Amino acid sequence: MDSFWLVTMAILAGAVRGGTPFLFVSLGECLTEKSGKINLGQEGSLLAGAMTAYAVSYHSGSPWYGVLAAMGVGMLLGLLFAWLSQLPRTNDIAVGIALMLFGSGIAFFFGKPYIQPSAPLLPGIPLGAWSDSTQIQAALRICPLFFLGLLTAYFLAWFLRSTRWGLQIRAAGDQPSAARALGISLKAVRTWAAMAGSGLAAVGGSYLSLYYPGAWTEAISGGQGLMAVALVIFARWDPKMCLVASLLFGGAQSVGPALQAAGIQTGYYLWNASPYVLTLIVMVITCSTKKSLAGAPGALATGE
Amino acid sequence: MAELSATPSVQPGSAGLAPLPASPRLRRAWGPAFEAILIPLGAILLALVLFGLFCKAQGQDPFKVYASIYKASFGSWFAFQNTLMRTAPLMLTALCTALPARLGMIVIGNEGALVMGGIGAVIAGLAVPAWPHHLALGFMALSGIVWGGLWISLSAGLRQYRGVNETISSLLLNYISIAILNHLVNGPMKDPTSLNKPSSFPIAEEIMLGRITFGDFTMRVHWGLAFGLVACVILWFLMQRTTFGFQARFIGANPKAARLGGLPVNRTTLITCFLAGGCAGVAGMVEVAAVHGRANESLAAGFGYAGILVAFVARFHPLAIVPVSLLLGGILASSGILQRAHKLPDSTSLVFQGLVFLVILFSDSLYGRFKIFKP
Amino acid sequence: MTLIPPENLERFTQAPASLDLYRITKKFGDFTAADEISLTVPPGTVHALLGENGAGKSTLVKCVMGFHPATSGEIMVGGHVREIQHPSDARKYGIGMVYQHFTLVPSMTVTENLVLSRPDVPAAVNWKRETARLEEFMATEAPFKVPLHKRASELAAGEKQKTEILKQLYLKSRILILDEPTSVLTPAEATEVLALLRQMTVAGRLSIIIITHKFREVFSFADDVTVLRRGKLAGQGKVKDLDRDSLAAMMMGGTSSAKPVPSAPRATTSTSSRRTALRVKQLSVLGDNGLTAVKDVSFELAEGEVLGIAGVAGNGQRELMEVLGGQRPAATGSLEAHGQPYHGTRRDILAHQFHTLPEEPLRNACAPMLSMAENIALRTFDQPPQARWKWLLNFRAIRKSALPLIEAYSIKTRGPDTPIRDLSGGNVQRAILARELSTLPLKILVVSEPCFGLDFAATDFVHQKITEARDRGVAVLVVSSDLDELLKITDRLLVMSGGQITYETPTATADLAVIGTHMAGHG
Question: Which of C228, C306, C359, C513 has its CA 20 to 30 A from that of C397?
Fold first, then answer.
C-alpha cells in the first residue's frame, strides 16, 4: 500500500478519534447558545460524564449504561446551570465557571476509587476488517459514538431549522422580546436547551473514559470542554460546521504525539499547548470588535 | 457582565420579610451595608450545611468534619500560621479576578499569571544571585509583576482589539503557561539533579524571602502575607479614591458612556489588567522566593482557581478579599486532615469550593429581596 | 398604491367584531395607571387612542391583549363579555397587536417568522407545504407584498411594519391594535400603510385601535378618538366633530402649554459670516453588521446656529452620532473642531468644549449603577475641585456640584447618591442634559432625540435650553426623527437617508413635502 495513503488515513483516523468529544461538546454548546446562554460549565459536564460513565460501566458491566448514566448526570448539571443562570442578577459566564469547578470537584471526588480498576470499554466497529494491514485495521476501527455524533449534528441542523422547538429556541436566543411576545416561555426553552446541551457534553466525556484514551484519570479532559466553546464561535453556530471544526481540532491534537512517535523530542511540552494555541488563533481570526459575528444569536452575552 | 461589579442596590417592589421595628434612619444608613455582609455570610453558612449533608452522605459525621476543619485552620497558633501561609497567595490571585471585574470583565487566568510570575521571578533570581538581599527581591518581584501583568494584558488586548472573550482566552492561557513551565523545567532551565520532580535551578539561598519577624519573635509565615495585605489596600485606594479608579468604574458600568466622556477605555483596561496580572505574578514570585526556591509544577497548585472563588465571594471588593482569603486559606489548610482523619480524598476541598461558588452566585439574586434591609 | 382587488375582499366571510371596554381599571400597587376607562370600537372603524407618554395608553391595550389582566372592568368582544387573562385568550377572540418595536426574529426569514407566529406550529414543519401555503396567501388575501425568503434583519423598516401587519392578517385577527405604527416609517410609507389599513376597515375586514400622538394621523385616518391623560379619560368623540385645538386642550388638561420658544432672531444673516465650529469631512462609518451605515457625509456647523438632521430612524443617524461622540471609529473621513483635527479624546473634548448627548441616555450616556452625582461628574471628575492634584477624588465636591443642577433642572430624585438607573426616564434625560449643558464655556453641542419620552412641559424646557445655548453662541446639532421638533428649533435642516445627506434647506423656507420625499430616499 502507498505510504501516502497510510499517513492520510492515520491523520483522518486521528481526527475522528480525537474529534469525537469535541463534536459532542460543541453540539451541546451550540444548542445551548442558540437559546441565548453561554455555558462554560461544559468542562464540568464533560468530566462528570467521563467519571460517571466509567463508574457505571465498571459496576454494571455494560459501557452503554455508562453512556446513558453520563447523559443523565450531564442533564442534571445542565438543569442546575439553567436554574442559576436565569435567576435575577446572576450571569451565565460566572455560573459556568462555578459549574466547571463544581463538576470537576464532583468528578474527582467520586472518581477517586475508579482510577485503578479497569471497566469494560465501548467496542470499536472494525471497518478495516477487509484489510490485512494492521495499521489500516487500527485506523478504521471507529467508535459507534462517532456515528451517533455524526447523526446528532445532522439531526440538530434539521431540528433547529424545521421543528417547532427548534424555531422557539432560535427565537429565544436571537430576540427574547419577540419570543416573549409570541408567548414562548424563555425559561422553559432555555432550561431544556441547557439540559440537552450539557447532556451531550457528558456523552462526549463518556467517549473519553470509555473509548479513547479509555480510562478514567483526573487529567482526562485538559480543557477540551472549554475549547469546544471556542469551537462553536469558529463554527458560527452551525451544527454541520461544528462537525468540520471538531475533526480539525481532533487532527490538530494528535500532532504532538505523532511527532513524538516519529522521534522528534524537541519542544514536546510546547507541542502539548498546540490545541490551546490553535483555539486562541482561531478565536483571534474569527472574532472582531467592529461588527457582531454573522450567525451569532442576538441575545448572547447581553444578560437578557 | 457589568451586573457583577454592581454594588448591591435595593430594588423596589419586591416581597420579603416584614421590616424590623428599628428606626428608619438607622436602617437607611446601615441596611445596605448589613445586606452586603449578611447575605454572603448566610451563603457561606448554607454552603457549610450543604457540605455537611454531602459528608453525611459519605458516611462521615459532619460535625466531626467541621471540628477537624476548625482545628486544622484556626484551632491553634500553629494551625493559624498554616492558614496564613495560604492566605497570602490567595489575596494576590483574587485581585487578579477582582480588578478586571470592576471593568466588567471576568478574567480567570489567575493560575497562568501566577505561573508566569513564578517563572519570571526565577529567571530574575538566577540572573542576580549576588545582588544585595532587598534589591534582588525587588528585582524578582518586578519581574514577577511584569510577566504576570503582560500575561493578563494579553487577554485584555485580545478583547479590546480583537473582540475575543477574555474569560475563554485567559483560561486557555492557563494551559499554555503550564506547558511553557513544563518546557522550561524539562529543557532549557532544567536542574539535572531534580529527577522525580523536574525543576529549574534553585535561586540563591541569600536572596530568598524571609519570615515575618517582630524583634525576637519569628513567625513561620513569610513576608508574602504583607505583600498581599499591602496590595489589597493600595488597589482598594486606587479603584475607589482616585481618578483612575473612577475611570475604571465608569468603563465597567458602561464602556459606551465612558467613550462619550473621552475616557481612554483601552488604556485603562490594559493598565488594570496589567496590575491584576501583576498581583498574581507577585503570588508566583512569593511562592518561588519564599516557599519552593525554584520553579516546578508545584507552582500550579490551584491557588489561581481558588483565587477566582475568593474574588467572587468578596464581590470583587479589594478589602473584602482579605477576610475571605483568610477563610478559604483555612479550608485549604485543613485539606490534609480531611484525608488523614476522615479518609476523604483531597478533591473534597474542590467540592466544597464548588458548592460555595454556586451558593454565592445564588445569593447574588437575593439582594433587594428582603424588606428588612430596605432604607 | 395598490388597491385590493374586490374578489379578495369576498374571501373574508367573517366580519370583524365590535370591541367594547367598560370601566377598565389597572392598578400597580398604589398607582392607578388606568382609571375606569370605557370606549367602543364599532365593527369596521378606526379608533385613535391619543395621549402623552405615560397617559395610560399602553397599559390599557395591554389589558386588552392579556399581558396584564385589568384590575376591574369588562371587555366585550362582539357584544359578549370575554375573560382575557393571557395573550392566547386575546388571540382566540381575534384580537392582534402590532407593536412599536418589531417582534420579528432578525435571523429568521419572513416565512419562518410567519409560521412561528401561529398558535399551532406543527411539531415538525414541512417547509415545502408551508411555503406553498404562504405564497397562496400572498397571492390572494394579502393586501401588500413582502419578500418571503428574506431574513427579517434584511428588511427595511417599512417592510418590517408591513410584515407585522401581514402577520396579524395571516393569524386571522379581525381586531388590530397598532402601537404608534408609523414612528419608524417615512412619511410616504406611513401614508401608504395607514391608507391600506383604512381601506380594509372601510371594506369591513378589520376594526382598528391605533395608539398615536400625531394629530395628523387622527384627523386623516380615525373615525373616533379617545384622549387619555394621567391614566384618566380626558375626552372622547367623533373625529369629525373635533378640531386640533380641542384635542390639544384635552391632552393637556385645558391649559395649553404649547407656547413658542422665545428665541433670538433666526439665522437671517448668512451663516457663512460666522466661524465654523465643527466640520465633518467625507465621513464613512461601518454599522454593527459591518456594512457601510454612513456614506461620505460632509457638513459644517457654525457658531450660534442650530442645525437639524432629519430622517427616519435607522438611516445612519445613530452611527453618525456615535462617531461624533467618540463611541465608534470612522471608516474614512475626518472631523475638525475650530479648524483643528478632532479625535474625541478627553483632551480634545476639553479643548473644544464639544459635548454629545446621544439618544437613550441610560443606555448610551450613563453608568447605570453609579450614583447620579458620579454620572454628572463624567465631564469634570479629573479637574479641580473634584480632583485634587488631578488624581485624588474629592467626593464631597462631586456631590456638591450636583446639588444645584438637581434644583435647576428640577430632577426628581432621593438625592445625589441614588444610582441613576433608579431614576425615571425623563429624569435621567434631565440629569444628562444638565451634565452636558451646564459647563459654561460649552462651544459645540450635539444632541440626538433630546425629547424622546418627555412630556410637553419637559419638551419645552429642553427646547428652551437648546435655544439659550444657541443664543450664547454655541454651535448646536440636533438629530431627530421628529420633524415637527426640528422645524420648531432649528435654523437649517439636513435630511439623511440611506446613510447620506440628501438634502439641505434653511428651516424658514423648508417645504415639508420636499423634505418627505428626500427622507424616503426619492430625492
Answer: C359
